[in-house]
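Re: that chain you flagged

S.,

Sorry for the slow reply, it's been a week of failed gels. I finally had a moment to sit down with the sequence you sent. For the record, here it is as I used it:
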Amino acid sequence: MGFSAPGGGLLQAAVQNQITRATEKGRGWMIPNNDYVGAATSMELGGLMNTAAFTDSTGRNAMDEYGVYFEQDFSTVSGADQGWYEQVDKTRLDHKPFFSHTFLLPAAVTNLRMFVGLADITALGDVSDADDFTVSGIGLQYSTGRADTTFQFLEDDGTTQNITDSTVTVAANTLYTFEVDAASSTSVVVRIRNADGTVAASATLSTNLPGATVGLRPVFLINPQAAQLHQLRNYKGALETRAYGIA
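Prediction finished late last night. Pasting the structure tokens below so you have them in one place:
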């Protein structure tokens, strides 16, 4: 015998709505802000990506064949970080996060260190001061100081870092999308996609992942290693958590 309550279908719909809200996935996004002027907000932020801090002292919004973007100019001072990071923890591997960021390097790809991904940081310097940093993270790294010519998939448990060569050559004026797909806290798939969405490279990381309950923050930066002009172009970013929720 089924349960019947006053309000019938209306009550059932309200209950179903609350269940859906309680179980749906957590999401966040980052898209260019077309009315960027001076020190105003450079990107529209929402949900799990609503606290990103940008280092840009000069920047611009514009459009190219790939869409609208926000471009950051790098100081020509060696070692001066440029990029962005979330100011509070937004996910953990046991949340089964999916993170993606679409970017392009329009200027030099020499004399620099780059990282994009998820990391246990409180400042950009935590992942920019050395190739083998001392915080937990998972992402995509590139360092000409290490003689890299290709992107390196990176996993770091805070003690030991492991890198896997993606074999994807780093090139200026080339659109890349990087993805972290953590279906579990012990096995994470990372991918690089081409401009047309096809997968250029992928790997499954499981050796030195961050701990399942370590707080992680989205981050993207370049650290110039010489007094040379560099630029960083952001198209869009997203973060989703899937520890619970509807398919």
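What I noticed first: The domain at 26-241 is CATH 2.60.120.200 (Jelly Rolls).

Talk soon,
D.
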